[in-house]
Write a structure and sequence with these properties.
Elements: H1 3-30, H2 35-59, E1 63-65, E2 67-68, E3 71-72, H3 77-88, E4 95-99, E5 106-109, E6 117-121, H4 122-127, H5 130-145, H6 148-155, H7 157-170, H8 178-214, H9 217-228, H10 231-247, H11 251-269, H12 294-306, H13 308-314, H14 322-330, H15 343-348, H16 353-384, H17 388-409, E7 416-417, E8 436-447, E9 458-461, E10 466-470, H18 478-490, E11 494-503, E12 507-516, E13 522-523, H19 526-551
Parallel strand pairs: 4-6, 7-8, 10-12
Antiparallel strand pairs: 1-4, 2-3, 5-6, 8-9, 8-11, 9-10, 11-12, 12-13
Length: 552
Amino acid sequence: MTGYVLRRSALSLGLLAALLAAGGAVLISLGVPVWVPILVAVLVVAGQYALAPYLVQWLIPAQRIEWVGDRYDTRHEVGEIVARRCAEAGLKPVRLGIVDDGTPNAFTFGHTRGNARIYVTRGLLERLDERELDAVVSHEVGHVKHNDVLAMAVAGTVPIVLYFVYLSLRGSNNANTAIPAVVSYVGYLFSQLVVLSLSRARELGADHYSCSVTGDGDALCSALVAIGYGMGQVDAQRASAAHEAKEGKDKERQKVLAKEDRRHQRMRSVGVLGIADQAQGATVLAARERGLDPREVIGALRWDTCNPWARWTQLFSTHPLIVRRIAALEDSGLPGAPTRWSAHEVAQSCVGPEVTRARRRFFLELPVRYLPLIALLVGAVGWGSHHWLLLAQAATVGGVALFVRTAFSRPLAPSRPVARVTELLTRLDASPVTGLPVEVRGRVIGRGTPGYVLSPDLVVQDESGFVPVLYLQPWPFARSLFGLLRVPELLDTDVVVRGWYRRSPAPVLELREMVPAVGERVRGFQWVVAYAASVLIAAVGGAAWLVMALAA
C-alpha cells in the first residue's frame, strides 16, 4: 500500500477499528465470547471472498485474451498497455477479458495480485482514445497493486460483527439492554458508511496511481467524464435500436438486442466494481459525448461541487463524485496533475446568491426529507408499545411533514418552458427534495429500462441532450400496464412533457402531464394521492390526539 492510499484510508480504517473495539467491549460486558462473532464474520466474508470471482465470471462472460509468450494475444492496443503497466507495477500479467457490452466501463476482481482479473468492455475500447484507455487501465492496475479487493473484504467483517452485537443485545432478557441495542444498530449502520468511505478512498488511490505512472491526469479526467456521464447514452441508444427493430419487425435483430440487454443487466449487477458509479452516469450530458460543450460540462460539474446535496449523496456511494476525483488529482502535486480539467475553477464559481440560497435551503430540505420517516418510526414504537397518544402525535406530525415534503418536491406552480434539456444541468435549486416545475419539448427515444417491455419510464431527447422521465401512478399494476400498452405508441413521437425536475445527483423529470403530437395525453396522479394522503393522515392523527387530550 502506497503512502497516499494509506493516508486516504487512515481515517476509515481507524473508525472501523474503533467500532470493532467498542463492539467487542459490549460483548465482554454481556459475557458473550468475543471470538464467536469474529469467527462468524470471518467465515461469512471468507466464503464471499472465495466465491466472488467465480460468480462475477459467471455473471459477466468475457472473451479471455490469453497471454502467449511475452504478450497478450490481441492486436488491440489494450493488450500492450495492460502488459506494460503490469510489468511497471511489478505484477505478473493479469487475466485480461473483453466484455461484449456497449457500456463504457472497466473493473478489477480476483483474490490476490497473483490471480487478478481486469475486464474492459467493448464500449470502453470504442469510446476512449489511447491516452484515456491507458489512464483507465493504469487505474485498474493500481487496484491490483494496492490489494484493494482484499482490503475491502477485511473491512466488510466489521459491520457483520456489529450486527451480531445488535442481535445479542436484542435477544437479551435484560431490560437495560434496549438502549444499547439501538446504539449498536446505529453503530452497525455507521460502519456501513465507513466501509463506503474506505471504498471511495481506494478509488482515489487508484486515480493517484494512474496519474503518477502515466503522467497524464487530463486523460484520466476526460475518461472519467466520458464514462461517468456517458453511460446513460448507451441505454438510450439501446432503447432506440430495440424500438426500430420492433417497428421493422426484424425478429433476428430483436433476438440479438434481447441477448445484449440481458448481458447489460448482468453488467449493472456488478457495477460497484467499475471505474465509475452507474448511478452517477444517467445524465443528459452524454448526448454530446465526444464534442462536449465545455459550458455544459462545467454546468454539470458545478452542481456536484456547489450543491450540498451532492456531498451528502456521495456518503452513500462506493465512488467519489467525478468532480471530487478531479479535485484530488489537482491537489496531488504530481507532475502529471490535470491542467485542462480544473475542479478548482468549478469551485471558484460557487459564489453568488444562487449558491448561497442552495446552501441555506439544504439545511431546510434535510429535515423535510427525513422527518416523515422519523415520524413513521416513532409511530411504530407507539403501536408496538400500545402508546396510542404517541401514535396519534406521530401521525399528526408525520402527515404535516409529508405534506410539506410533497409541496417541496411537487409544487403546484405552473410549469416553465425550458429551451434546451441541457439547461437543466446548471440549475442549483434542483435537489432530491426540491422539484422544479418545468416544460420540456423533445422526442421519446426509448424506455427507462431498455428492452424491458413493462418499463413505463421514458427517455426524452432534444437537440442538446436527453433526460429520463419518471411515470408514477398510485394504483397497482398501472405502471406495468402503461409500459405494455401505451409506451409502444409513444416511442419515436414528439412530445411536450410537464413535470418536476429533480437531481440526486442524476437528473430525473417526474411526469405530471405529457402531450404527444399524435394520440391522447398522458397524466400522472401520484402527486394527487401524495397531497391527499398527507392531509388525511394529519387530520386523523390530529383528531385522535384531540380526543385523547380531552379525555385525559
